[in-house]
Amino acid sequence: MPAEPRTRLEIVPLDGIPEIEPGDDLAARVCDALGARSDLLPLLEDDVLVVTQKVVSKAEGAIVDLTTITPRPEAIAFGAAHDRDARQVEVVLQQARRVVRMAHGVLITETPHGFVCANGGVDASNVGPRSGDVVLLLPDDPDRSAAGIRTAIRERFGADIAVIVSDSFGRPWRNGIVDVAIGVSGLEPIEDLRGTPDHDGRMMRVTVRAVADELASAAELALGKSTGKPAALIRRAEITRGEGSVGDLIMPAANDLFR
Amino acid sequence: MPAEPRTRLEIVPLDGIPEIEPGDDLAARVCDALGARSDLLPLLEDDVLVVTQKVVSKAEGAIVDLTTITPRPEAIAFGAAHDRDARQVEVVLQQARRVVRMAHGVLITETPHGFVCANGGVDASNVGPRSGDVVLLLPDDPDRSAAGIRTAIRERFGADIAVIVSDSFGRPWRNGIVDVAIGVSGLEPIEDLRGTPDHDGRMMRVTVRAVADELASAAELALGKSTGKPAALIRRAEITRGEGSVGDLIMPAANDLFR
């Protein structure tokens, strides 16, 4: 049987994006990295660029200097009980719309975006040389962050591709983190296949697939663990273009048995 | 900058696996499909084959004929209240080690394997022409299922690659299903990076990554929605070979704030 190169989904980590500092033009640096990869050009309509939250937050200056933080008594107690920096705990509580669980050293909150995640997405790793005294927050509006990168790519290359901002979240019941989408632009993050016949011709009743989360996880596999590469291009995934929002991925509280 | 083909992670759906019936030798059919792809041979040490649960369950005869099932009153009531087949609900309850939630039309159970998932992994879609009167159960021991396919590949091709059995699970707090690993052979499903320096040289404190789940999600992107292709080969993912078990992916009840 001949090779079928058209059916290969490819995930290409982008080299050459420099260390990003607050105020840097991340979208321009991503475009530079894409432009240097002649093997990826022209960009294709179903390409998806996945950019990790960390560089987005850094570029947007979503950084808190912990030396300016005075933890509340609850944060001091939780930090002391679980060997955690009380100032980090305070930042998580300040960012939280609601505390979902705060027990056994685990602090799970709902962010203003509606994400339910450990430490409200507040991130103390890989922040840079200032290390222990700085944490990263989630971007204010990760859909807007994704849209900004998408626009820059369209202006530079004349190609409108989808962009996802990804972050690493834990899950109940399963060990380990996986990358999920926290911001999207140019695709429908949920594929609603309800009522579509499956390959036996029967109706698939409840198949609503979180494609954007699967794309984020797939990109992580190529970006790997500690390489520091913050972006990957996914080619030939079966996506549905559209103007969806990451809000489509958030389960309404009314439907959620674990809120 | 020259192309860097070595850095491209590829996901290749396998064509030519016939419709699987109970008792069929799935591992042999997977080997046939691999053997027909000269472009993929020789197999490489870090290749990962992902096979979907549905064909594994069918080959192993993990099928229940609903006409033999007499639902208990609780199943009848739940089915009537939520427009569901009470016999399917009965099968889910029979398979459950514990009912985690049974409300608002959602039935979440813990399976004998330890998976917490909707309908205990009991699957009524794509089962074949008998449609409404048959459901698929999860394989008895999905690690063993994966190991059987791995052994067959090693015997046919002289290459020891990792194998994952995947299934689609929902998640609390987020809409939509994603594919995760329910059986593994030949890799460590969890990458424990605690204590490994990140690229700034700082210690990453709590980075335990569910690589096998990310691989399952990535494969789903290439297998797509209703094509019926049940297997994909992932090439050049950064995996750790080993003799891990899917049990490594299951959070111990003692650590789980949502059990």
Written account of the structure:
The structure is a homodimer of 259-residue chains. Chain A has 259 residues and is α+β, with helices and mostly antiparallel strands. Chain A folds into two domains: 8-57 and 139-248, CofE-like (60s Ribosomal Protein L30, Chain: A, 2-Layer Sandwich), CATH 3.30.1330.100; 63-136, CofE-like fold, CATH 3.90.1660.10. Chain A has six helices and twelve strands. The interface between A and B is large, with 85 and 83 residues. Strand 1 of chain A pairs antiparallel with strand 1 of chain B, so a sheet runs across the interface.
Q: Globular, elongated, flat, extended or rod-shaped: what is the shape of chain A?
A: globular
Radius of gyration of chain A: 20 Å
Please tell me the total number of domains of chain A.
2
Integer average pLDDT of chain A: 89
Looking at the structure, the CATH topology of the largest domain in chain A is 60s Ribosomal Protein L30, Chain: A
Number of helices of chain A: 6
Oligomeric composition of the shown chains: homodimer
CA-to-CA gap between the ends of chain A? 51 Å
Going across the biggest sheet of chain A, name each strand in turn. 1-12-2-8-9
Q: Supply the CATH superfamily name of the largest domain in chain A.
A: CofE-like
Helix content of chain A: 25-40%
Q: What percentage of amino acids of chain A are in beta strands?
A: 15-25%
